[in-house]
Design a protein that fits this description.
With 138 residues, this protein is an alpha+beta fold. It is built from 4 helices and 7 strands. The chain has helices at residues 36-49, 87-97, 99-102, 116-121, and strands at residues 2-4, 20-23, 26-29, 53-58, 72-78, 108-114, 125-127. The longest helix is centred in the first third of the chain and has 14 residues, at 36-49.
Length: 138
């Protein structure tokens, strides 16, 4: 199921992964600390791709890892750098920017990479990631 994003206009937007908490239809704002891996991802993407919209979601809690882990992320990146670039090359570009994190701390990275025009013309909804299957092909 897709969830609507809070930003309605195309502006630079970054949300700490657990800043917005929704429970049974109500939404509460909760301040959380952003871990060093998430902050590194944010800084590197901002520096390299100059996004007009950036959302980083720490999905580690959905997996069999210790609390407060930073191993599984989804990034939503809207950037002019993706104009006239095929989707696979956009993903490769993000992977290249985050190569250090992917070779050490980050186990999984889901990427949504769009141009500003695609973002504006789309629904601005991000598909929910599937539940963890437990690893080992289960």
């Amino acid at each position: 199921m897709a969830r609507p994003l809070l930003a309605s206009s195309l502006t630079h937007y970054w949300r700490a992964s657990a800043f917005i908490h929704s429970h049974r239809g109500s939404t509460a704002r909760v301040m959380v600390s952003v871990g060093p891996v998430e902050l590194s991802i944010k800084n590197k993407i901002e520096s390299a791709l100059k996004p007009s919209y950036l959302e980083i979601i720490n999905e580690s809690y959905m997996h069999n890892v210790p609390p407060q882990s930073e191993t599984h992320f989804k990034v939503v990146v809207v950037s002019e750098a993706f104009s006239n670039v095929p989707l696979i090359k956009r993903h490769r570009l993000v992977n290249e920017v985050l190569s250090e994190e992917l070779s050490s701390q980050v186990h999984a990275l889901s990427i949504v990479a769009k141009t500003p025009t695609q973002w504006e013309e789309g629904t601005k909804e991000i598909e929910k990631s599937p539940a963890c299957r437990g690893g080992f092909g289960k």
